[in-house]
Structure formats: structure tokens, C-alpha cells
TrEMBL record:
Record keyword NAD present: no
Lineage, uppermost ranks: Bacteria, Bacillati, Bacillota, Clostridia, Eubacteriales
Protein name per the record: RNA polymerase sigma-54 factor
Protein family: Belongs to the sigma-54 factor family.
Keywords assigned by UniProt, alphabetized: DNA-binding, DNA-directed RNA polymerase, Nucleotidyltransferase, Sigma factor, Transcription, Transcription regulation, Transferase
Domain RNA polymerase sigma factor 54 core-binding: 83-266
Gene3D superfamilies named among the record's database cross-references: Homeodomain-like (1.10.10.60), RNA polymerase sigma-54 factor, core-binding domain (1.10.10.1330)
GO MF terms, alphabetically ordered: DNA binding; DNA-binding transcription activator activity; nucleotidyltransferase activity; sigma factor activity
């Protein structure tokens, strides 16, 4: 375990000098997967006694993982200038150009009004159909129209569908990545080319090309139109799987944790060399290698401890799309006995693979919204979303009414705060929801 007490002493004494071993430990802990691979590659060039023994290390170094980036390569026409549009307005303009007046256009506009800030349709078609008193079959043509709008991938109901829609448009139905996204989604949950090649019986080169094509896709197509979740760039560090009875398994991925060993010849030479300069050089090189070996073990142990606490607390969010529970660095520091800066280093730039998809580990942090830390902002947003979904379409709830309902549940939130959270959820104001839903009610089934 990383010596987190060291950092307490550093805070208490500005004059305490850090030893080279301390510097190595703290640096290795804070590195992301790709940065760690680069760091070890540089070490190989500078230190002749070191060799990398991990069988997949070369592939991990050459392939930096799936990059989820807002500015992923795209055609200039893929997305509007977010400074001049919000997501709904941009999609609305396209729908009005694509469809004539009639039911399908009105249903498509209603669907567009229920997209979340990332461009996903989180309400089921059944819920949407019930809200405007039509059949699901009536909505499907409208949903297909929304999914044909730019940016590619909007209107998807899952990450798989989002990426599939983009691959279909970018590469075509016959492209291997498009087919994998449609029929072999589970094979892409590990970003290792060797594992993908083995699972689908591809060459390593072909598997690498598929993953490089995957990097061109955008998992949050609506993110450029407003504030969204943190951008993920790098190689996954931690994997989580959900088990029956609410249990979870957390594992630090070995592919992101290369291991070091010593070149046997140099180790023997350090004991037998006659030249003092050679002996001293090899002794210093071996000492540096031992520091890095220890730092790697401490990094893995710390990631396992910190990651396990975060994932266990937020298992509902990771496994079942429930809202985030309150969780802060300060609380984790008190629970684990680590210094806060140690936890921040452990979380920084680390990526989690879970049933929800690829997430920055830092996205599991959630500030409490109440003084007793019992309710998080995410939980309040979930309540607001549920209230609006279940409201009487003829009498949509105003922000003040929602605040009043929350107060009845013991959560005191100002009307302006409700409006802020509602806007962040991509939900329209009460009068706008009434206008949207009026379009649906007045149409024959």
C-alpha cells in the first residue's frame, strides 16, 4: 500500500525533502495506463538491467485504448457549432426539413424533446407512447427519423446502439466493425487487440484496425452542445462485474499494469564485475528498478482499495443505472485512512469498465446535496426526472411544484436549483412540455 502517511508528514513540514523512492511512488500512482506504459518504455531505454515481462505489454504500449473524445475525428458536417445551437434546436431544425406536417413529425419532435444532454433516449418507447396516448408502433418510424439526424448516434437507447448507428453511417453495413457492434458487442468490452483477435478469430493486425476504427466513434454524441460527463482518454485500469444478490467483483486490469524483472546477465555481472565504475552503475540501476517494482505493486494495491470502495458504493449506478450516491474524496480519506492527495492521485485519469460502459473513475464521485450528506445531486435529478415522467400531461409540474414535492420528501431545494437541474437533464419547462404533448394528444391514434 502506498505510504500515504508520507504525505501527511509532507504537509506538516515544508522542509522535509522527498527521497527519490518517494518521488517514484507518487509519480507511478498518478500515471494513467498509457502514461505508465510510456514511463516504463523510457525506463527501458535508460536502465539496461530492466526488462518487461508482461506478455501483452507491447500491444498495450502501441495501442492506447479506446479514446472517448469530444473532438474525435468526424466530417465537418457531422455536428453543428455548439456555440450557436442547443441539441434540441439543432435536431428540431433537421426534423422539420426531413418531415412534412403530420403525426410523424410531431412524434419525432416529442422524442427529440426527451433526449438527454448526451443525445440518448433514456425513456422507453412504451413510456413515450403512454405519455402521448399512441401505440409504440406509431413511434418507431419517428424514432428512426431522429436517429438519422446529426450528430450521428443521437436517439440511441444504449451505448451499443449509439456506436452501431455511427458505424453504420460512417463505414456501412458490411464493415466488420458495424457487424461486430450489432452481433458481437461483448467482444468489444475488452480493448485488448489480442483478446479481440482470439474471440473473433481475427489476426492481431485486423483486430487493432477494428479498435482504431472504434476510436473514431463518439459515445456521447450530444456532449458538444453542452456540459457533459468528463472525457475519457486512455487504457482501462479497473474492471467491475456485477454478481447476484448485489455483489460486485473489482479487478485491476493486468494489461494496464506492466511488470518489471531484471535481465539475469546484468544481475550476475553486478556481483562479479571487477571495474568499480561498472559495479556502481549496475548497483544504482538495480536500486532504481527495485523502486519502480515496489511502486507498481503499491499502485496496484492502492487502485484495488480505492476502486473497490468507489464501485461498491456506486454499484447501483454502475450495474442498474441508478443515481449516484454521495461520495467525496474527504469521506474516502476518512474511511480508508489515506491522505486526500493520495486518493486524488489514485483516481486521476483512471478508467473503469463496468456494465454501464467505459467511465472515468472520477465520475463516481458525487457531492452531497444536503447537509447530512444523505442525498446527492444525482439522486435529486433522478427524482425530478421521475416526477416529470409521471406527471399528468394535461397539467405539467412547474419547477416550484417540483420543489414543493421534494420538500414533502424531506429534501429542501430552491426553485431555481430545480430549474438548473432540469435543464442539465435536458428536460423542457412545464409550458414547453405542455406544448409538445398537446401535439400528440390531438392526433388520432
Amino acid at each position: 500500500m502506498l505510504n500515504h502517511q508520507l504525505e501527511d508528514r509532507l504537509n506538516q513540514s515544508q522542509n522535509l525533502a522527498m527521497t527519490p523512492q518517494m518521488v517514484v511512488s507518487l509519480k507511478v500512482l498518478a500515471l494513467s495506463g498509457p502514461d505508465l506504459a510510456s514511463y516504463l518504455q523510457e525506463l527501458l531505454l535508460d536502465n539496461p538491467v530492466v526488462e518487461l515481462t508482461h506478455p501483452d505489454y507491447a500491444r498495450a504500449l502501441d495501442y492506447s485504448g479506446i479514446t472517448w473524445a469530444k473532438n474525435a475525428a468526424k466530417d465537418p458536417t457531422d455536428i453543428a457549432d455548439p456555440q450557436n445551437h442547443d441539441l434540441y434546436s439543432y435536431v428540431e431544425e433537421q426534423i422539420r426539413l426531413m418531415l412534412p406536417l403530420g403525426n410523424c413529425r410531431q412524434y419525432a419532435l416529442f422524442i427529440a424533446g426527451n433526449l438527454n444532454p448526451d443525445g440518448y433516449l433514456r425513456m422507453s418507447t412504451r413510456e413515450l407512447a403512454q405519455a402521448i396516448k399512441v401505440s409504440e408502433a406509431d413511434l418507431f418510424p419517428a424514432l428512426r427519423v431522429v436517429q438519422q439526424c446529426d450528430p450521428a448516434g443521437i436517439g440511441a437507447r444504449s451505448l451499443q446502439e449509439c456506436l452501431y448507428l455511427q458505424a453504420l453511417r460512417r463505414f456501412g453495413a458490411s464493415h466488420l466493425l458495424t457487424q461486430i457492434l450489432q452481433y458481437h458487442w461483448d467482444a468489444l468490452k475488452s480493448p485488448s487487440p489480442s483478446r479481440l483477435a482470439k474471440t473473433l478469430k481475427l489476426t492481431n493486425q485486423r483486430a487493432l484496425e477494428i479498435l482504431q476504427d472504434l476510436r473514431l466513434l463518439q459515445p456521447k454524441p450530444g456532449a458538444a452542445f453542452g456540459p457533459g460527463a468528463p472525457v475519457m482518454t486512455g487504457y482501462p485500469d479497473i474492471q467491475m462485474s456485477c454478481r447476484p444478490k448485489g455483489e460486485v467483483a473489482v479487478e485491476v486490469l493486468k494489461d494496464s499494469q506492466p511488470s518489471l524483472s531484471y535481465v539475469p546477465e546484468y544481475k550476475r555481472l553486478s556481483k562479479t564485475a571487477q571495474d568499480p565504475a561498472v559495479t556502481d552503475f549496475l548497483a544504482q540501476s538495480l536500486k532504481q528498478a527495485r523502486w519502480v517494482q515496489k511502486a507498481l505493486r503499491e499502485r496496484q494495491s492502492t487502485l484495488q482499495t480505492v476502486g473497490s470502495l468507489m464501485v461498491v458504493r456506486q454499484r447501483g449506478y454502475c450495474c442498474q443505472n441508478e443515481p449516484l450516491l454521495p461520495l467525496t474524496v474527504k469521506e474516502m480519506s476518512q474511511t480508508l485512512g489515506f491522505h486526500e492527495s493520495t486518493i486524488r492521485r489514485a483516481i486521476a485519469d483512471k478508467i473503469l469498465i463496468c456494465p454501464r460502459g467505459f467511465l472515468p473513475l472520477s465520475s463516481l464521485l458525487c457531492e452531497p446535496a444536503t447537509f447530512d450528506h444523505s442525498v446527492s445531486v444525482a439522486m435529486i435529478k433522478d427524482c425530478i426526472q421521475c416526477m416529470i415522467r409521471g406527471e399528468d400531461p394535461a397539467h405539467p409540474l412547474s419547477d416550484a411544484a417540483i420543489a414543493h414535492q421534494l420538500e414533502k420528501r424531506g429534501v429542501w431545494v430552491a426553485r431555481r436549483t430545480v430549474a438548473k437541474y432540469r435543464q442539465e437533464l435536458g428536460l423542457l419547462a412545464a409550458h414547453q412540455r405542455r406544448q409538445q404533448r398537446d401535439l400528440g394528444w390531438r392526433q388520432p391514434k
